[in-house]
Amino acid sequence: MKKFSQLAIPYIVWAVIMLVLPMALIAFYSVTKPGNSIFSFSVTLEHYITFFTDRDFLKILWRSLWIAAKTTVICLLIGYPAAYFISRCGEKLQSGLILCITIPMWINMLVRTYAWIGLLTEGGLIQRILSIFIPGENELLYTEGAVLLGMVYNFLPFMILQINTSLCKMDGALLEAGSDLGANPMQTFARVTLPLSLPGVVNGITLVFLPAVSSFFIPKLLGGGQYFLIGNMIENQFITVGEWNFGSAVSMIMAFIMMLLMAVVRRLENKNQGGQAERDF
């Protein structure tokens, strides 16, 4: 046991330097205000008050949560049927389909997002195809639809892989038992498959919603700076404006929202597992 504790020391040191220390600095900056000299500062909640009393900032926060929610719903509606189909395929075909989903993830997300600019821009492939069916000017790039498309494209694999993992772990004997008891395919899916796959659904929602709500380069590239989200706002405060204290406060607000959402999701997952255990008993 002592040897294992010693092996954990490098990881603990790394976690403190790379995770705990940066978060502590951000928390410190969020509740302080620079003084007259380099080492002087005053403790204040002014940055938090400014954020929650400014309608424009709250509007940006709501817009970020709303587009993240829409991204998550679309990923779920597309991802669950895709994951279900993959889980019902043969082993070789299933491996091939999973490989097709994961191959794009080997390419940097920034590069993949840049590729969508060429597809959505005027004269691009998608623009030309749409012009055949819908004549006239069809503005695709630098719109909310383009931002939503980029987010769904980048985060959809996380939803599919999580749900597929839960479906593949499912005991096939349960489906056979439901069929033997007279349940039709729809009843079997609603009472057996769907409840048992909920952990994967919950994990998929978490892995899609959290990065979507804080994404900044997808709205920046596909929104052209016209669609401003909370991630862009944080980037702007740190890099452009130079207001590190206010940017840190916004970062802490987003961190709190994410931790709250993760706690809610975890509680729902535990509740579902508890209910499943009672039914099995």
Task: Provide an overview of this structure.
The chain has a two-stranded antiparallel sheet. It starts with a helix and ends with a helix. Helix content is 79%, strand content 2%. The chain has helices at 2-7, 9-30, 46-53, 55-87, 91-102, 109-120, 125-133, 144-169, 172-180, 185-214, 217-222, 230-241, 244-280; strands spanning 32-34, 41-43. The mean pLDDT is 84. Strand 1 (32-34) and strand 2 form a beta hairpin. The protein has 281 residues and is mainly α. It has a domain at 73-88 and 95-227: MetI-like (MetI-like fold).
Keywords:
single chain, 281 residues, mainly alpha
The structure class reads mainly alpha
**Distance from first to last alpha carbon:** 35 Å
The name of the CATH topology of the domain at 73-88 and 95-227 is MetI-like fold
Helix content, binned percent: over 70%
Largest sheet: 2 strands, antiparallel
Tell me, briefly, the overall form.
globular
Q: Mean pLDDT across all residues, rounded?
A: 84
Total beta-strand segments? 2
Note the run of SSEs as H and E: HHEEHHHHHHHHHHH
Question: Any chance you could write out the topology, listing elements then pairs?
Answer:
Layout: H1 2-7, H2 9-30, E1 32-34, E2 41-43, H3 46-53, H4 55-87, H5 91-102, H6 109-120, H7 125-133, H8 144-169, H9 172-180, H10 185-214, H11 217-222, H12 230-241, H13 244-280
Antiparallel strand pairs: 1-2
In short:
With 281 residues, the chain is mainly alpha-helical. The protein has 13 helices and two strands, in the order ααββααααααααααα.
